[in-house]
Amino acid sequence: KAGVTQTPRYLIKTRGQQVTLSCSPISGHRSVSWYQQTPGQGLQFLFEYFSETQRNKGNFPGRFSGRQFSNSRSEMNVSTLELGDSALYLCASSEKLAGAEELFFGEGSRLTVL
Amino acid sequence: KQEVTQIPAALSVPEGENLVLNCSFTDSAIYNLQWFRQDPGKGLTSLLLIQSSQREQTSGRLNASLDKSSGRSTLYIAASQPGDSATYLCAVSPLTGGGNKLTFGTGTQLKVEL
Questions:
Q1: Is the pLDDT of residue A1 over 80?
Q2: What is the rounded distance in angstroms from the CA atom of residue B63 to the CA atom of residue B78?
Q3: What is the pLDDT of residues B23-66, one digit of tens each?
Q4: A72-97 tens-digit pLDDT
C-alpha cells in the first residue's frame, strides 16, 4: 500500500506570491489533515478535511486555505506569502475522523519564502 | 487550551542503554496519545498509539504508558541503538469535536552513540 504522497517536496517562493501544495492520502483514507512545522513554533495544526468538508481548523490567518477532492486528495494554498510562512508543511491521513486511529504522515513539502 | 511538554529536550546516551522519554499534557480530556519519530528533514512515523482507556502499548523494544489522570506519558526504549537517533514527539487528540486535530509536544532529540 502506498503511503501519503506530498508534492512538491521542495519549493522556493518570494514574498507576496502564492503557493499550492498537494497531498494524496493512503488509499481508502478519507481524512486528511495539514500541519505546519517550524523551529520556533513546532508542529501546529492547520486544518482537517473529511469527505470533502473542512471539519476542523487551527489558528491560522485566512491566507491559509485548503480543499479536498472526491478522491480524497487534498490541496492547501497559501496566498500573499510572508517570510514567516517558511516551514515544513506536513500532510497526514487516516481512515476516520474520530481520532481513534494512527495518523500516517507524508514526507512534507519544504517551503522557503525569500 | 491543551499544552504538551516534553522533557528532556535533548538526550545523548551510549548504545545499549535503556531510556525514558517524558510527555506531559495539561488537559486530561484526550481521545488518545500518539508517539512519533521524526528523522531530520523527514515526515513523522507513528510508533505507538494509546487510547485514553488504555494504560500502555508495546511494540518491539518500545513501550509507552499513559496516566491520563496525571496528564503524563512515558516512552521507554530498551537496549538503544544508533538507529534510534531521531526526534521523538508525543501528541494528543481532543476527546470531543477535534477529530485528528493533534496537539504536539516540542520533542526530545535523541542521539545514541556507539
A1: no
A2: 8
A3: 999 999 998 999 999 999 889 999 999 998 899 999 999 999 99
A4: 999 999 999 999 999 999 999 998 75
For chain A, report the end-to-end CA distance as a whole number of angstroms.
Answer: 37
In whole numbers, what is the pLDDT of chain B averaged over residues? Answer: 94
Residues in chain B: 114
Pick among B62, B87, B100 to test the A interface (most A CBs inside 10 A): B100
- Of A6, A44, A99, Cβ closest to residue B100: A99
Q: What Cα–Cα distance (Å) separates residue B42 from each residue in A43, B9, B87?
A: 13, 19, 11
Name the β-bridge partners of A49: A32, A54
Q: Are B83 and B61 in contact (CB under 8 A)?
A: no
Report how far residue B75's alpha carbon sits from residue B36's, in angstroms, rounded to the nearest whole number.
10
Asked whether A83 and A113 are in contact (CB, 8 A), the reply is yes
Kindly identify which residue of chain B lies nearest to residue A45, measuring between CA atoms.
B101
The C-alpha cell that represents A45 in the structure block: 495544526
Cell of A106: 507524508
| CA A109 to each of CA A3, A66, B14, B75, B88: distance values in angstroms, whole numbers, following the listed order | 15, 15, 33, 28, 20
Beta bridge partners of B6: B23
